[in-house]
């Protein structure tokens, strides 16, 4: 029997800087993409949240004197455990890893860390940011719900953030734009609306969707994905201003 061929990893997930590149840039801020390894229906890869977090991180880092870090690719996806392929770590572990990274950055002279979160289930990241006060490293969690709302409006996304929870219009659009080679056929007919998810944390996603999709991926387009990323990059200007990380001058 011939083994099935694994898809080629998405390009652009890993920073290409050398140590001398970082020395020359002298960054005072680091950007850490945080994704997940969880089901996203039959048409998006398990790495979807990581790919999206990396795409956002690249957009907000462009032209700024920051250190772009490689992504954390496994996080808190316990609500997706009913589907094959999903892998999770505990909230305690994610908290510890992010805190350790912040401590390492502080020792190297970087005192600001932006957590670019691509997975809504990483609730503990709010606590990490909250607890960073007085630690010697200032943190922020990006994008916030208001940032996503503004970007969705700019892009003409038709579904609300609540309806468009998982593998829906927004996530599929970003992959169609940033990495269309990762999107399989079938998203055009995979809509699943499940707005009443009162007991999601208790029952998991499988109580509300058979396919793993919650949203309307049929409405996705590469144009919307491009505008979503542009809107988030614009929203990041406010965060950069908080920490004094403006754009670099270009000739």
From TrEMBL:
Keyword vocabulary terms for this entry: Hydrolase, Metal-binding, Zinc
Statement: the UniProt record of this protein carries the keyword Nucleotide-binding: no
Metal-binding among keywords: yes
Name used for this protein in its record: Creatininase family protein
TM region(s), chain numbering: none
Cofactor: Zn(2+)
Entry's family note: Belongs to the creatininase superfamily.
InterPro entries: Creatininase-like_sf, Creatininase/forma_Hydrolase
């Amino acid at each position: 029997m011939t083994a099935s061929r694994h898809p080629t990893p998405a390009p652009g997930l890993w920073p290409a800087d050398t140590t001398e590149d970082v020395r020359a840039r002298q960054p005072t801020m680091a950007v850490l993409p945080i994704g997940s390894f969880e089901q996203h229906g039959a048409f998006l890869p398990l790495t979807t949240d990581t790919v999206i977090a990396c795409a956002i991180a690249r957009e907000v880092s462009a032209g700024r004197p920051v250190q772009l870090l490689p992504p954390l690719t496994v996080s808190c996806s316990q609500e997706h455990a009913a589907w094959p392929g999903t892998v999770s770590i505990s909230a305690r572990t994610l908290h510890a890893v992010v805190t350790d990274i912040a401590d390492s950055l502080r020792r190297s002279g970087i005192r600001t860390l932006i957590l670019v979160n691509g997975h809504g289930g990483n609730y503990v990241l709010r606590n990490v940011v909250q607890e960073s006060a007085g630690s010697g490293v200032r943190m922020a969690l990006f994008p916030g719900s208001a940032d996503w709302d503004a970007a969705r409006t700019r892009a003409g996304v038709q579904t609300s953030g609540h309806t468009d929870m998982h593998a829906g219009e927004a996530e599929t659009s970003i992959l169609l734009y940033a990495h269309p080679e990762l999107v399989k056929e079938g998203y055009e007919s995979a809509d699943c609306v499940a707005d009443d998810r009162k007991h999601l944390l208790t029952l998991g996603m499988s109580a509300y969707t058979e396919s793993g999709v919650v949203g309307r991926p049929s409405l996705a387009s590469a144009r919307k994905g491009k505008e979503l990323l542009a809107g988030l990059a614009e929203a990041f200007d406010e965060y950069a201003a908080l920490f004094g990380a403006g754009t670099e001058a270009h000739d």
